[in-house]
Amino acid sequence: MNILALDLGTDTGYAYGSTEPTLGHWILGSEREITAWGRSRLTRRQDPRVIRLFHNLRNFKDANLVVFEDVTFQTYTYQTQLWSSFRAAVWLAFPNTLIDCVPVSTLKKFATGSAFADKKMMMNALLKFSPGVNRVTLTDDEADAAWLWHWAAKHHNH
């Protein structure tokens, strides 16, 4: 089973594979681009980050399972709208693929034993769990995606 795990955001981490994941990340927009898009209201009409995410996802059409963190935002409307758009891009890119999401606290507990783990704890736990991971180039987003991949592999009988 090919699993695609996504830590969705402007900096999206991904983990992909069938036996061990390959890790990577996409920067869907630089600060400079996002500022320019905001001035022209492009972030309100057709946010390029969502389009870029969708195009990147098309490279993984052979995924049998796609999983992402089930993040809930309550602070900013814009944050909620962007997150919803990222989720919609995933749904549209994989209309015939099993898609699952994992609550943030569930993923943290799975990775570290604590539902309150911070980014550093998640990273350290991954480095212990997967000693072959390159700690020099590993991003927080890739670490979260790796944990999503391992969670999916365990919970979907991989």
What does this structure look like?
α3 packs parallel to α4. The radius of gyration is 15 Å and the shape is globular. The chain has one domain: 2-Layer Sandwich (Nucleotidyltransferase, domain 5). By secondary structure, it is an alpha/beta fold. The longest helix has 17 residues, at 77-93. The chain has a 5-stranded mixed sheet. The chain has helices at 31-39, 42-45, 48-57, 77-93, 104-112, 119-129, 140-155, and strands spanning 3-7, 11-17, 22-27, 65-70, 98-103. The mean pLDDT is 92.
Features:
158 residues, alpha/beta, Nucleotidyltransferase, domain 5, 5-stranded mixed sheet, 7 helices, 48% helix, globular
Count of strand segments: 5
Our count of helices gives: 7
Tell me the CATH superfamily.
Ribonuclease H-like superfamily/Ribonuclease H
Distance between the termini: 7 Å
Largest sheet: 5 strands, mixed
Helix content: 40-55%
Short account of what is shown:
With 158 residues, the chain is α/β, with parallel strands linked by helices.
Topology:
Layout lengths: L2 E5 L3 E7 L4 E6 L3 H9 L2 H4 L2 H10 L7 E6 L6 H17 L4 E6 H9 L6 H11 L10 H16 L3
Parallel strand pairs: 1-4, 4-5
Antiparallel strand pairs: 1-2, 2-3
